[in-house]
Write a structure and sequence with these properties.
Largest sheet: 8 strands, antiparallel
Structural class: alpha+beta
Shape: rod-shaped
CATH class of the largest domain: Mainly Beta
Number of helices: 5
Amino acid sequence: MKTAQLATTVQAACTQGQQRTRQKGAVGAARLGARLGARLGARLCAPFCALLGAVCTWLPLPSAAAEPAPMFTVQRGQIVVPAASPLRQRLQVAPVDAHASAQTIAVPAIVEADPTHVVAVVPPLTGRLVALRVGIGENVRRGQVLAEISSPDFGQALDDAAKAEHALALANMALQRARGVQNIGANATKDLEVAEAAQRDAVAEDRRARDRVTTLAAGAAVDARTHVLELRAPASGTVTALNAGAGTFLNDPTAALLTLSSLDHVFVTAQVPEHVIAQLAPGAPVDVTLSAYPGQVFKGKAARISPQLEPDTRRIKVRIPFDNADGRLKPNMFATASFAAKAVGGVSVPPAALLMNNDSTTVLVEVAPWTFVRRVVETGAEDEQRVQVLSGLKPGERVITRGGVLLND
């Protein structure tokens, strides 16, 4: 118990000694120690307590934990990295390079069927789809039966053709009688002319009815009992879309039943950004790579460049034709089209130097040692190593090329 009281008293003495030292110096602390020895009246001598009071002056007062130094500070729009900040070990600053070399521009692309070899097969009449003779992905030949449609309209067309045929036969007989009567002089001339006009009308109506049936049947044999219409392929190709199944009632004569695409020739359509259009000319060589065939490069040429930009992407379509007799290139495959851009002067930075801030691209430029400002730049062509900067930087300016994201707050 006495030991605890002694420790408490000594601690209090140390605190008072520190305060006294600050106020009156070491002499005052020594006098405080002497009075403490006299007050204790214990085995501790007054000189020892005086020494103890002097030593206490060197002990720190209890205080709150010191706050860590900031990693960086922002002062009037400038980012300052203090000398003690560990960020200095993680940031890399380098001058901007001037360059005037050609670059390879890679843009996204997709495989598409030649639109001039795509046929949308539309049923000529409304009716019920009785049978479907082909499936999706099946290759068909021109004239092959694709489907069978039971259509009242087609039956009406057949009936009209039969009526026109009978009317023509009757008109021919009437004309023949009129000519016989005219030959014996027992008929007026106008009666013969009326018979001839009626026969010509019958011929025209018969031709119209037959042509309509021929168009609807597309040369197929017609079942006179059921009046089923056979829908035949207008061209050879592959069934790439099928929009109805057997039993469906086709009530929209403008809706395609299926789509035939000839895939012997396809296009790789590249989406070229607006700012590099001037660097691409018709006939320019293009290298195409596809995700489906890694490591393979398909050589082609930019055959067709669209005369207008896409309003939603602000890109222009460039089509590269390819022969596809083996069917390796399939519509909607993802691809990458690469072409060489013209050599232009300017500056470039590593991709890691670019920072995204909302809708703008920025870099951190050093204006003083370890002091940076954010600057908006406009980029151009790029590859895996460098990105061309069209505006916002000058040759020789120093920018953060690595670790800038740590300051992108």
